[in-house]
Amino acid sequence: MRKKIRISFERKPVVIREISEGSEPEMRFYVMVAVSTMIASFGLITNSTAVIIGAMLVAPLMTPIFGIALSLIRSDSHLFGRALKAEIAGVVAAVAMGLVLGWLSPALKPTPEMIARTEPQLFDLLVAVFSGFAGAYALMDEKISPALPGVAIATAIVPPLANTGLCFSVGQYIAGVGSFLLFFANFLSILLVASATFWFFGMADTFAQIDRKVILRRFSFPLFCFALVTAFLTYTLIKIANHHYLNESIANTLKTELLEYPDTGLDSSKYDEDNGVVYVLAQIHSPEIMTPTQVDRLEDALQQSIGRETKLIVRSTLANDISALDSPLELVEERLDGSFTSEMVHPRVRYAKAADTFIRNYFAKIIGFELDYVRYFEIEDTPILHASIQGVSVPHPEGIQDLEKRLREELNLPDARLLISFIESRLYDRSGAVRLDFAGLVPNYTAEERASVLESIEIIRNELAGEQQLSITGVNYNMFENTLYVLIDAVSPHMISPETVNDIEARAAARTNIPIKLFVNLKIDTVVTSAGYEPYWSVARAGFQRQAATAGGVLQTLIEASKR
Q: Which of 70, 192, 370, 371 stands the most exposed, by the fewest C-beta atoms within 10 Å?
């Protein structure tokens, strides 16, 4: 029969003395309990892991557990009484001090470190089992006894007790019981494993001669409690695993579905259950607010994925990922190797990004246009490219046709259709709307010509002012090849004739000696009254003046209310 490993003859009395002295319920023991509890409580309140580790290092409650274990296998009733008294007194003192500190702490709120100790699971029990063995084994061999501080850090003794008191102080009794259960699980694990370790190393010379009934009587209660705690923590672990599985399923489904949307990703998600319905809150980032239809699509995907009725709420943060032109990179969730980009993106995103790059390059050669975004989707198997564009002039159908043709060739989508949402950007100065496509911003005449040009404009204004009920809304002009080109925007209930325009050109040119080409962009705006015809702008101005006293206040109230 193989001989058991035994502690050396010289080391054995040293271990017994160290455990016995550390299990004495003396003043120094209570001082260290108070100090370690205060440190642990402050670490829990301030959410400081480093401070909590410091409390573990100075906590004295692990040694009395070793004392109880040693007394059980050595039939040392004196040591058992002292160690049990020290452990119970230390536990009560730690919980009470945590309770008092919780009462004294203003506006105490749960921290992640506190919450983490309210739901023990099977893994916590396994940590305590191995820590109990490591601590007892380190005591047996003086060469590895310096490892004891590491064992103290790994085993949660004082922090759960301090957390129990803190939870009780704010009325969170269930959470406090959960924290105490974590301590109790660690206590039982260390007690049983340390007892087995001490026996294995020969700390009890007469143990083999003890009747089995005595052995069963000594360890039956700890074993029974250990079995109950193990069963409960196993159930908790299964519950946590199911929660984790559902949470991961929700997150993975949302991430997969959001791959279809450019520059859109999931930041976080959480769920709650009520009457069989899973309520999901998803925090995403995207370049635009998602529509209810898009949320419906995500909600349907979640229901199919988890097989349960789901209600989804999307909280969107507006953000846009900007990369260099022609860059195919797409941001993805950070991997273990540190990478966070990928060229393997969803086909919809790939087509949208490629079209975005191509259209931006296309309009880079055309003055006055800017691309906001490009979206790709399909309607009855027809590829649709939707581009939102801002510009100073409306794009011509010929230009849209040319761009669509080039996009089909670039993306290899012969049936693709291009749709453009156009937002016109208008500039205004003292003369009205500035037409960059006609006059530009920089005058194209010399300083010597300036006086003649301004005189010509004034002549044209005066001539047109003689036209019945015509109102000038904008004037744009510039010199090209020694000819003054003038565009007048006007509204009138009547059309003016080309002959009138020709006469005005001739009279202005004769007085300034500058050839003039006049264009009148006339908008027919007619309101028929009993007195005749007049433009709507004059009717509207008179009507607003009549109601200025009341309409102005109502309009101001409407504007202010819309900003709340």
A: 370
